[in-house]
Recover the amino acids of this structure.
């Protein structure tokens, strides 16, 4: 077990942990409420079109996460972070070009789909306009955690929540027309939420406008060195989480895509709770395990794994059991009696697949702290490979049931890869020590 800090430090981290949990609840509530309300008040076809566009937006987000957010979250808390004190400013400068390129990709995809008369096309164009603001907001939230300012992240997320909630009330009033208002609403809310971390972190405008080519190049190379593994599998890794709505929509129609996404929404709180733990945890693990090195398999690593596994299991197991027992009633409560009740059988597959999150969280966070991004990438690639080789063929053969079975396999595949790495690394060290 990682040595217990002093009482004052423990108290400070308790406050940080509570702030992180509150921040994640507030931030993710926007996504959760929007999906629930849209699924409730829109037709299954209209909600399916939105779900497809939203999934493609997250597909475009994948390179940004791989090359900017993930390396920054791991490197920002390390004592040897590249660029020194100006690291954040250099990351902010470098991310702008990538964000604009990815927004351009969404524009091209939106125009192409619109040319074929797809209702997804206009939604993608609106997401393209909102993308730079949403990307930047995600980065600055991570910056707050890297700097140990979870309360600042909470304040920014609260502004985001309040602006978005005001729009949610309008969405409910305008019904089906409200789906096209969601992307600009999120972009506006993201822009409003940026002000708090920008001011709180004291990011000087002068430093952002002055380019230091040498330092910027060093930061970019370091991000590439660590992020290339995530980028290499990122296009595939994100497939295991975002391809389902587009694939189901293409094969079975937008109504079936909407039904799958509506059931999947019930698991959003679980993934967001794990994300809330990861936000403040990764910078701390990076500092604690930094001495072990990238190939570390020492006692600190083993203690971290043994601490994180029961924490993740304590969240995932009760949640999955609750979905199995009362998930069908929740579908009626959230979406209206009978609307998606016939799709409640999907809960069995999604609940079992959620068990893989135990190993993915505990071992994935440990690997990131050790800067073993190649291991994280291998897990994501395994999930993507399972999606392509198992889910898509089963979808063609058995429809929605095949997609659900493939989803289960794709959720468990990363857990198997990460578990094999942990057993090999930690077991070998323990054997040599004995």
């Amino acid at each position: 077990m990682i040595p217990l800090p002093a009482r004052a430090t423990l108290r400070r981290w308790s406050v940080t942990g509570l702030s992180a949990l509150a921040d994640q609840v507030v931030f993710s509530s926007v996504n959760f409420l929007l999906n629930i309300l849209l699924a409730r008040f829109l037709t299954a076809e209209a909600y399916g079109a939105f779900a497809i566009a939203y999934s493609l937006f997250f597909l475009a987000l994948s390179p940004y996460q791989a090359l900017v957010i993930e390396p920054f979250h791991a490197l920002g808390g390390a004592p040897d972070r590249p660029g020194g004190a100006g690291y954040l400013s250099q990351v902010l400068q470098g991310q702008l070009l990538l964000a604009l390129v990815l927004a351009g990709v969404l524009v091209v995809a939106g125009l192409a789909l619109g040319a074929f008369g797809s209702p997804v096309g206009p939604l993608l164009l609106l997401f393209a306009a909102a993308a730079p603001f949403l990307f930047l907001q995600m980065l600055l939230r991570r910056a707050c955690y890297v700097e140990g300012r979870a309360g600042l992240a909470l304040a920014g997320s609260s502004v985001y929540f309040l602006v978005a909630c005001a729009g949610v009330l309008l969405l409910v009033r305008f019904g089906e027309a409200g789906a096209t208002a969601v992307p600009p609403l999120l972009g506006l809310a993201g822009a409003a939420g940026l002000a708090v971390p920008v001011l709180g972190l004291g990011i000087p405008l002068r430093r952002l406008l002055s380019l230091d080519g040498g330092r910027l190049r060093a930061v970019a190379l370091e991000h590439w060195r660590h992020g290339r593994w995530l980028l290499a599998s990122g296009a595939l890794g994100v497939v295991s989480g975002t391809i389902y709505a587009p694939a189901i929509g293409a094969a079975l129609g937008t109504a079936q895509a909407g039904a799958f996404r509506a059931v999947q929404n019930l698991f959003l709180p679980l993934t967001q709770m794990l994300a809330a733990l990861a936000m403040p945890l990764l910078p701390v693990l990076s500092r604690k395990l930094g001495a072990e090195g990238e190939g570390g398999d020492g006692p600190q690593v083993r203690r971290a794994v043994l601490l994180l596994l029961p924490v993740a299991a304590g969240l995932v197991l009760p949640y999955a059991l609750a979905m199995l027992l009362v998930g069908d009633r929740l579908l009626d409560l959230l979406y209206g009696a009978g609307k998606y009740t016939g799709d409640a059988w999907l809960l069995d597959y999604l609940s079992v697949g959620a068990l893989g999150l135990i190993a993915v969280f505990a071992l994935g966070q440990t690997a990131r702290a050790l800067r073993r991004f190649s291991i994280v990438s291998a897990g994501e690639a395994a999930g993507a490979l399972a999606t392509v080789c198992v889910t898509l063929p089963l979808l063609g053969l058995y429809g929605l049931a095949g997609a659900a079975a493939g989803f289960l396999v794709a959720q468990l595949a990363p857990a198997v890869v990460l578990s094999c790495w942990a057993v090999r690394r930690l077991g070998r060290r323990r054997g040599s020590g004995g």
